[in-house]
Amino acid sequence: MNIWILFVFFRTAQTNSTCVTSIDMELFLHYSLIPSFFIIMVLSFLQRRVHHKQIDDKSYLLGNRFGIVMPLDFIGTFNNRWSYGVAFGAAANKVMFLFSEGYQPLQVPQWAQAIVLLIGGIEVGLSHFPFFACLSSDFRLISSILGFMYSLIWFVITTLHIVQCPHGQLIGEYETVIFYWPSLLCLAFLLGRFVYMFVKALKIHLGLEVQNEERSFLEVHQAEHVKQLMRKPPEQEEEKSWFQRRIYEWDPYFQFPSRMIGATVLAFICLYLFIIIEFCIYTYIVQELDVFEGGLESYIASVNDTGVLTPAILQIKELITVAKGVWMLTIFSASLTCISYLFHILACYRKHIKRLWLGEKSFIPSKFHNPSSSNSVVAIARYSGWQIAYILWGYLIIHVVQCLFGVMIMYGLVLPVIHNQGLEMLKGLGIGILTISIVVGLMILQLKIAARFFLQPKIKPGDRQKPLALNNRKAFHNFNYFLFFYNVLLGLGACLFRLFVSCILGTWLIARIDRTIMQNGYEAADMGFQAWIGMLFVDHYHTNPVLVGFCHILLTCNNERKLQKSIPYWHLNHSPGPRVSIKSRTRWFLLYTLLKNPRLTLLRKPKSALGIRVATQTNSVDVLQN
């Protein structure tokens, strides 16, 4: 099913609108590439390349300039996370057009649609590239000016588009405002952010404020996380509240990367736009159904309620009325479900990444314990976009399923009461409940008989259950024989129940990319879950606080060693004091580590030459502990 079919009514209604505007947003998207390329070239000219090229020797003007401009670090960026998220939110309207496959800059055959969508995605990315590049550029003064001007252009054009045609034919008043206010709010936030960057950079340039030192790749929260691991756990843990135990517990030593924040913000805005578009389509369909109902009422009036088709027509009208009411009601339940999924996915990301930091992989299927490196790298690029698509498709599927259940409840419970058939409904409901109760009771009875007569007594009085050892074998075989034929029929119901539960859970969890809906052994067919696992492993390998902290220590020691070699009289710059040999300091660190972690003495590699030393250090640890 092509989702563009769902948007065709909305796009047609917009095209047939009586309001005439002088601004075409799709045409402006094409023209916005001109200032976008200019900003990218300016930032690339300011960015110096690390490696010297042969072309730099031929042209003196290059001077290692025109480096690669990076929009943002999708893995290790923890600063300006909400600014990047808002920048993603500014592109929400264009992302929705890409999702609907309605934005096609070129007209090509059907077999080349994938290539055209790729070109459209690249064009949207280039048009919004300056937002991210100006936020992440090291040249704050120039990038803030360029980012402010570019954001101002988009803000002014979007505002003019809203002012010229604020109303529509489907929702009515302020229809355009309803669609564009999230992007407009994001653009206003970016304007304020670039003004703040400009003021701060100007103060540093004029010497009114001291520029911060070069930021290390070891973030503060990562260093605090490592320090927390080094501390002894408290003897008595603080009592957690119900919210912390059941819903979410805030961790001051953990931060979500910018990729997760940006994907979540964009998913929220896209879900809002999707619901609005769905409501517009619903409004259009309701208008057509009202016309259809008017024709049915005219037919009934023409035959004076005596026609052969009158009962069927009344049932059709009742079905339309029920469907319209249930669809409106389930919009809220489906929306709340998908919104809760977005928060729950963030909580699952923190839980899963922390487990990987501990070396625990039990929550991952065994075949994904060592994923392909190339697949994991691609998963970083796929995850954010796929998460948004899963949420949108999941909302639509969940909404349809909830609507079907709502219609079933209306026809099974509510309408019989309205039509004065409540007793018949209660009678049928009672018979159904009684039948299910008898079936479940017989299944429980089998368990009780098996536990009472066909298992040997407990070996120890404190055992939780009896051992799996048969008793009364002849009675047991007769029990199996006579229940064999009954269990054939019972198995049919169990099979249908299995199918029903699988369908319900599959549709209910379709928007959850962090949980596979495939059976055990078939998880590889779930490409969304594969992207989730690959993304987790990339973050685990590149943002593990212990690993990053270890690399930070190595780099710091290496820089200090280079500094010592570069300064001939480096030792004269330090205050005099007792000099400690490296060997003694290493032994002291070893003793301190063993004192804090006594179990490590059992894990040390045994060597004959170190036997006396290990014994001495172990005795020292025991003495200090006593």
Automatic annotation (TrEMBL):
The chain crosses the membrane at residues 27-46, 82-99, 111-133, 145-163, 178-199, 265-285, 326-349, 390-411, 431-455, 483-511. It is a multi-pass membrane protein. It comes from Vombatus ursinus (Common wombat). The gene is LOC114040841. This is Stimulated by retinoic acid gene 6 protein-like. InterPro entries: STRA6-like. Pfam families: RBP_receptor (PF14752). One of its GO terms (molecular function) is signaling receptor activity. The keyword Membrane applies. It is found in: Cell membrane. Keywords: Cell membrane, Membrane, Receptor, Signal, Transmembrane, Transmembrane helix, Transport. It comes from the Eukaryota. Its main location: membrane. GO terms for biological process: establishment of localization in cell; vitamin A import into cell. One of its GO terms (cellular component) is plasma membrane. Residues 1-15 form the signal peptide.
